Structures are given as C-alpha cells and as structure tokens.
Amino acid sequence: MQFKLSVATLALATLAVATPARRNIPASQCSGSTGALQCCDSTGKATDPSIANILGPLGIVVQDVTALVGVTCSPISVVGVGGNSCTAQPVCCTNNSFNGVVALGCTPVNINL
Predict the structure, then answer these.
(1) What pLDDT does 72 receive?
(2) Exposed (0-12), middle (13-18) or buried (19+): which is 67, by Cβ within 10 Å?
(3) I want to staple 110 with a disulfide (CB 3.0 to 4.6 A). Which of 22, 24, 29, 69 is the partner?
(4) pTM for the complete prediction?
C-alpha cells in the first residue's frame, strides 16, 4: 500500500513540474511588448474547439497561434477607476485588431498588483 502511495505522489509531482504555469503579471506592466490591458469573457488555447470555431471565420490559422487567446474582450483603460473593473479574465494582449471578438497573444494579469 505504501508503495502505491509513493508512486502516486511521484506521478503527481512529475505532472506538476511538467505542466507550465501561466504567470500573472502586474497590470501596470501591460504596455509595449506585453500588449494592452483587456477584460475577456474567457481565455484558452487556439486549439480549443470553441475558440478554433471563432478563429476560422476570421481567417486566423489556428496552427499559427501558440499564445493564449482571449474571447469577447474589451479594453480596461485605468485600473482601479469605477466602471473599469473586470469581473472576468484580465489579460494583456498583443493583437487586439479583431474588434473585441478575440485578442491574441494574451498573458493573464493581476489587476490588484
């Protein structure tokens, strides 16, 4: 029994190390190379079926998108000012040229930092 527990613990530890963590950056760092601060209803990989179905009609080749994709996004202009809060997923996105339908190259942010 103890052997099985050790194997299970080792397997979980290996999985935790092998799984890349999405790091949240402070919202104040959203500019330039990290992109504009956005509030997206959801985020995910371009290969997620629900996101791929949105990217296809926009002419975005799914295989070319390796970064996080934001869906139904709106800009957050000033953090902490009334009316600019984000109750969904705040992200910095480098390509916001799809009128809020999707945003590409997104990085999760912590708007409290």
Answers:
(1) 94
(2) middle
(3) 24
(4) 0.68
Beta bridge partners of 102: 71
The number of CA neighbours under 13 Å toward the Cβ of 31 is 4
* DSSP character at residue 83: T
pLDDT in tens, 38-65: 999 999 999 899 999 999 999 988 787 7
| Angstrom distance (rounded) from CA 46 to CA 64 | 9
Q: Torsion over CA of 23, 27, 28 and 29, rounded to 10 degrees? A: 40
Cβ atoms of 43 and 93 within 8 Å: the answer is no
Cα distances from 112 to residues 2, 27, 32, 37, 60, in angstroms, run 43, 8, 20, 13, 32
Q: Is 15 helix (H, G, I), strand (E, B) or coil?
A: helix
